[in-house]
Amino acid sequence: MEAKDKVFIFDTTLRDGEQSPGATLNIQEKLEVAKQLAKLGVDIIEAGFPFSSPGDFEAVRLIGKEVEGPIICGLARAKKEDIEKAASALESAKKRRIHTFIATSDIHMEHKLKMSRDKVLKMAVEMVSYAKSFTDDIEFSPEDAGRSDPKFLFEILQAVIEAGATTVNIPDTVGYTVPSEFGNLIKLIKENVPNINQAIISVHCHNDLGLAVANSLSSIVNGARQIECTINGIGERAGNCSLEEIVMILKTRPTLGLYTGIDTTQIYRTSRLVSTLTNMLVQPNKAIVGANAFAHESGIHQDGFLKFKKTYEIMNPEDIGLLTSKLPLGPRSGRHALNERLTELGYHLTEEQLDKAFTRFKEIADKKKQVVDRDLESVVRDEQRMQETTTHYELENLQIACGTGLPTASVCLRRTSDNAFLKDAALGTGPVDAIYTAINKIVQVPNELIEFSVQSVTEGIDALAEITIRIREKNGAVYSGHAANTDITMACAKAYLNALNKLISEVGIQIKLYPQHGGLEAKRGV
Ligand code: KIV
Ligand code: ZN
Question: pLDDT exceeding 70 applies to what percent of the chain?
Fold first, then answer.
């Protein structure tokens, strides 16, 4: 295929994706995701919005310095101070892009910006020229383009391209358009913006009506050549166009005549990494990367599939890097075998990490007898998560009594600051409520549990349970916690502590001795 048929993949998992409630990543996690995105072969990584917070600034700076291959991009409103911050964060990136935006729909200009069309157009042009003084690679987005007056859109696009924009991105910010309409908008832009050939047309579709991928597809059929998307489709509200879906559409349907530079065998690994680090579960029936995406359940399907794979399978699981199962490890497998399998799965552990993973593996193998790849991934990720979070409290002991009587939990936590063992017990409406109430009595950090989900890593009664929770602290910030264990109550307690440890680290809770039971009093602090 020719160069003109290449669709550039602009990944915004670390910017729009990270705007999903509770999906916050720390700087090291962002770097890990960015390195994996580079392996995946994305063309552009939108690494953050440097003006929005010191953490975002630092993440963009670090990714620009350390990640090679893709263009690294920073988002900026059409404001001098935003553009200067983005430029400064991108200073050491070999290939850098500034992405500046301003809203162009009447509803946004009137109610949000309180600016006239002329003012918006003037600012857009001035800020694109200003950004151009820092780098040649400038992207401009007319926010809410999907609901903007097309005539004004043509005018502003022509003006920003004259001012130096090399990519013009058309966002369907609120996910309102439908494929025929959005594709037609791209066609009209091609026909009505005289200098459009001097820029690449990009699209950025949100998924509020479940049409982000369909709208993106319709736009490239009509001439767009960059798609903004995220891993697992995460993002603001219902999310963005899912990278894995759009990429696999182009691979599976070559008659569309378009291609990407993505190494699809890295898709599954990238999806798991993002899901684990953001604590955002992938729904089992999610296209491409969901647990059921390649599972054949009905007898007729299984029969057909076994006779000839292509009867029911349009893609090979290997195409997305899903290893077809090797022999599972068991209680007698050694450290070496574990290390080999983890290396095959793409995990390169230090000696110390391997020791910990091996201890966990043995515990599981004793209970489960057969440990498959998904169990191993779950355990390794669990360990990595523990290491990435500063541990203020660790679960030492947990006893549960439940049944027809009153569910009761007795908990012992180790406070790491002084190695004190703190105990308490509580009744609850159920075992989870009892565990969380007992932990709260010890830790005493006000928060609200806003999400609790249980997933089984594999089939079978002995499967590892993965618990994902989200808690909200009183100022509104959301923290996620995750843990995996063959004992579901242990996983519940550990997931809660994982979230509490993050909350305590982040809001600077000051820990004091709590007089009643030698426990704690925690105050928002300093
Ligand atoms: O959805 C949107 O409009 C955006 C822009 C900043 C591109 O995220
Ligand atoms: Zn967006």
Answer: 94
